[in-house]
Amino acid sequence: MSAATSPRAYTVIYDGDCAVCGKLVALLAKWDHEGKLEIVPAQAVDVRTRFPWIPAGAMAESMQVVRASDRATWQGAAGVEQLLGALPRGRWISWMFAVPLVRRLAERGYRWFARNRYRLGCGRHCRVHRDARPG
Questions:
Q1: Does the global pTM surpass 0.90?
Q2: What is the CATH number of domain 3-121?
Q3: For 109, how many CA atoms within 13 A lie in the half-sphere containing its CB?
Q4: Measured by CB atoms within 10 angstroms of the end CB, which terminus of the chain is less buried, N or C?
């Protein structure tokens, strides 16, 4: 199945090795009452085949959100903004991205989180060493 033929409106590609990321996408799935999201770990076997236009480094660096209808792709805080606007429960907070400087601050916050995600939620039990950095 390609991104364009996905039965869901959006595909969310996240770091399946990150415990915090897993909890966050579980929350997204809970908010997705209309079944708009397909949530896929970046480590899934077919991800690179389905989404060849997304560089592997970008997938390691941040969450990717792909709209199935036209393959438009967002990453990081822009992906969060897109998801909030698409989910009924997220719309009540998506307005904040219209406030001046919020997009820039959200992106900085997202980048900080992405760099530190293994230290924030994974312990020694994690499959990925907690001090690992995305490549």
A1: no
A2: 3.40.30
A3: 9
A4: C
